[in-house]
Amino acid sequence: MNNILVVEDDPRVADFLQRGLRAEGYGVQLARTGTEGLALARGGEPALLILDLMLPGISGLELCQTMRAEGHHVPVLMLTAMSSLEDKVDGLRLGADDYLTKPFAFEELLARIEALLRRGREQRVKASSLQVADLVLDRERMQVTRAGQPIALTAKELAFLELLMSAPGRVYSRERILSNVWGTNEDPLTNVVDVYVRRLRAKIDEGHPLALLKTVRGFGYRLDAQEA
Fold it and tell me: Rg of the chain over CA atoms, in angstroms?
């Protein structure tokens, strides 16, 4: 069963969505505020997130932006009473996958949900392995190879590498790396990131003509196949 997290503060709309989606065979979890919705989205694994734009606590846009910044890739369908192009563009730029303007037909909502879930399944299949140049991470087996040769990595090294390989070329700050790999309780001044960068370089780049793990001075680290 696909579980959908609905974050909606209007009781009538929330009840309508909950009853309608459950009748269609979906599992439904309901949050009334943006803060509650963020906590539930972080703590569970919803197949889809339906967000109202205007919410108590934090807005739907802020919730979506936070989820994306933390590396969550759950499909997001934004609901809004505002139909301006600017609002929709803002939502899409902050990580929403689709928009539906209130009032909406339930049949259209179902069609949008089915399309997003289908797209999510296709992306998960495609993302079962990550590759940058001849470096390959098999997410199913959590195994890494470069030029066909296996590389032994610790759990933290794997998590670090997976983060970098999930967005080749993107620069990750030390703070972002600490948040995603070690959690938010680590001291941002610690040198643990630098230690693990040295370890990864020794394992994935040493002995290869092209170094993939690069330092962007003053910003952080990125992994790509471009020449330095």
Answer: 20
d(CA 182, CA 39): 19
Q: Give the dihedral of Cα atoms 7, 9, 12, 17; nearest 10 deg.
A: 0
Which residues touch 165 (CB under 8 Å, ≥6 apart)?
Answer: 130, 131, 132, 135, 137, 223
Q: Dmax over Cα atoms in the chain, in whole Å?
A: 63
Q: Are strands 213-216 and 149-151 parallel, antiparallel or unpaired?
A: unpaired
Asked if residue 132 lies in contact with residue 147, where contact means CB atoms within 8 angstroms, the answer is: no
Query: In degrees rounded to 5, what are phi and psi of residue 7?
Result: -115, 100
Phi, psi dihedral angles at 134 (to 5 degrees): -100, 15
Smallest CA-to-CA distance from 82 within 63, 66, 65, 59 is with 59
C-alpha to C-alpha distance for 64 and 173, rounded to whole angstroms: 20
Which amino acid would we find at residue 206?
Answer: E
Query: What amino acid occupies position 195?
Result: V
Q: Give the least confident one: 85-89, 118-122, 198-202.
A: 85-89
Q: Is the pTM of this model over 0.70?
A: no
Residue 134 in contact with residue 151, Cβ under 8 Å? no
- 183-206: pLDDT as tens digits: 755 555 578 899 999 999 999 999
